[in-house]
Amino acid sequence: MTDAAAVANLARLLADQSRAAMCLAMLDGSAWTLSQLASTAGVTMSTASEHVSTLVAAGILTDERLGRNRYVRLAGQDVGEALEAFSTLARPAPARSLRGVGERRRLAAARTCYDHLAGRLGVVVFDALAERRLVDSSHGLALTDNGEHWFEGLDVDLDDLRRRRRPLLRECIDWTERRPHLAGSLGAALRDRFLERTWVRRPDRTRRLEVTGMGQQALQELLGIEPGRLRVEA
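The chain above was modelled as a monomer; its predicted structure follows.
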């Protein structure tokens, strides 16, 4: 299969709105049951099962069975970042209700992109890391000596992350902000610390995040981020 044919085949697989809805839901990085995916996409269980089998065969999703349940997740961070890139290119129709506007604004404010922070929160954190010379992008994105100390202060085991096959850190273009946020194993570790320390929380079964009062205080103390910088305008 040529490169052009492979790209066309991937686009064909995601052209179905139900499949796209299921894949976007799994950008929260967790495993979903078939019933949850069917409900999210608004399709029957049998249709959801057919879609999942097609996407598993294409290497976009992975699945496993535990008892009577089938658990499905994205095949990896590369798939998640590709979906985020598709979202960057897409031009969603304007929300037609106040509820829709509010939901889109909350998603733009803070969410996960597979396993790292995204939205305004992710971009502002990345900007602050660069402003404080904790990461340096002058010759390709790299962690500085001060950055190593900063992340070690958050109990991030950098030696363990460097032993993994995944890149330590990389930029991922945010689809709502159109600017980079931090990805790679370090971006995933940072998201984990935010959740573990209750600096952010998941308010529902989506990839949306909310910054808590403790989180606002931590961001201000650790990175000099004022709460106003996290606000998404209407």
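The longest helix spans residues 45-57.
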